[in-house]
Amino acid sequence: MRLRLHKHILSQAMSSSSSLPSDPSKLPLKPLPGSYGLPFFGPIKDRLVYFYCQGRDKFFSTKIEKYKSTIFRTNMPPGPFISSDSRVVAVLDAISFQILFDTTKVEKRDVLDGTFMPTTAYTGGYRVCAYLDPSEPKHSLIKRFFISLLASRHETFIPLLRNTLSELFVELQDQISDKGEANFNALSDSMAFNFVFRLFCDKNPADTKIGSKGPQMFDKWLAFQLAPLVTLGFPKLFSLLEDFLLRTLPFPAFLIKSDYKKLYDAIYTSATAALDQAEGLGLKRDEACHNLLFMVGFNAYGGMKTFFPALLKWVGSAGENLHKQLADEIRTVVRDEGGVSFGALDKMTLTKSVVYEALRIEPPVPYQYGKAKEDLVVHSHDAAFQIKKGEMIFGFQPFATKDPKIFENPDEFIGDRFVGEGEKLLKYVYWSNGREIENPTAEDKQCPGKDLVVLVCRLIIVEFYLRYDTFKVEETKALLGSAINIKSLTKATTI
């Protein structure tokens, strides 16, 4: 999923100004560029170009070049017949993207997957929290449950994750010893599922009826919902056939009904403390369980499934100089602090920066959507545009977090980008459906587990460099993100 922003194209589109004027009202109001094409045929044309002719990144960069603007009209997949309306206004720079966080101006009802919504049969008949707008009463109730649940597990995070990671590293070394390389994705998926299930359900999934099959069950559940938004990577000869199969009709939920029931039953019988907590807040136990399943499977496991390999890819390919700096920092702090603790992790400034840089360059959820609640004026660095009430706004996050007006050398992974003065740039890191410098509340759509994700990623880096001096990776494409093979591990020479 590595992105290559065409910086010269973006520079042409954004004029010569290097920063936003102090008074955005002085920006010229321009008509929105772009076109949706003919009804029915326009969305299909854009879809084919997006998936099979240009590819995702070139699709956007070509339009930026054509319209000389990072804000424009376009269609977004899946289009007919799954989506009744594919029209969006794209906002593709760090300034305009922020409108998607303002839930007083944009509605987040049923837009998690963009211009379509999978049937609620995938979620037990409920519109779970991720599909609710903050104006809906159930949203704040369910999100308060998530926030309080995470707070109650705070002391469990580090010891549970370190234990789970120890199991991963044993398997990693065994694979390298036996085969000369290790499939990190498969090991990472298993580790991520075991961690989140143990964290929220207080039980090892191996002791439930799902056994070791949890990751595969969740993978199928995710794939059936997200199929209209992906390409399988078949040869171009089969492009039209794939497009017809994936985007003519949504996959029916009954195909994964049995797996979903097993996952639901495992959570319902294991997460008794969490569900008691939900009932205490006023949620029905059944509804709370379906929401917890979605958070565990879609938000937590799904995000970790794509991001953990990305994190290892960027760090692994950064080279031995960064590896040495990380090892020195981590081992020094752990020695001085007497172990791995929240306080120790907070003192690892380079480790924190590396995680933020990976989240910036390859955010786990690249798309954001919202529908204008009123007539709006949205501005980029050098112009303003009016968006009408009811229009869908779309943001492609990796372009916003690679805005060359904000980040120097935005396509490069720079491990210490957010060290020292660089910390000021964290307000432009948007991976969590909000700014990194902000904390989620029950009234917004920012990920309630934002801080947990950052903590988990830091701990992965810490545990790696407590064991190894350096490692080498090889990347190939995967359905979601990157497939990573660990080619070699050099054991730590100092402690």
Quick structural gist:
By secondary structure, the chain is α+β, with helices and mostly antiparallel strands. Helix content is 46%, strand content 11%. The protein has a 5-stranded mixed beta sheet with strand order 2-3-9-6-4.
List the SSEs and their pairings:
Elements: H1 7-13, E1 29-30, H2 41-53, H3 56-67, E2 71-75, E3 87-91, E4 106-107, H4 137-152, H5 157-179, E5 182-183, H6 184-201, H7 214-226, H8 239-247, H9 257-270, H10 272-281, H11 285-317, H12 320-337, H13 342-346, H14 349-361, E6 367-372, E7 376-379, E8 384-387, E9 392-396, H15 397-400, H16 450-467, E10 468-477, E11 482-491
Parallel strand pairs: 1-8, 3-9
Antiparallel strand pairs: 2-3, 4-6, 5-11, 6-9, 7-8, 10-11
List keywords for this structure.
alpha+beta; Cytochrome p450; 3-stranded mixed β-sheet; 11 strands; 46% helix; iron ion binding; Cyt_P450; Cyt_P450_E_grp-IV
What does this structure look like?
There is one protein chain. With 495 residues, the chain is α+β, with helices and mostly antiparallel strands. The chain has one domain: Cytochrome P450 (Cytochrome p450, Orthogonal Bundle), CATH 1.10.630.10. It has helices at 7-13, 41-53, 56-67, 137-152, 157-179, 184-201, 214-226, 239-247, 257-270, 272-281, 285-317, 320-337, 342-346, 349-361, 397-400, 450-467, and strands at 29-30, 71-75, 87-91, 106-107, 182-183, 367-372, 376-379, 384-387, 392-396, 468-477, 482-491. The strands form three sheets. It has a five-stranded mixed sheet. It has a three-stranded mixed sheet with strand order 1-8-7, with no helix packed on it. Strands 5-11-10 form a three-stranded antiparallel sheet. The model is unreliable at 1-21 (pLDDT under 50).
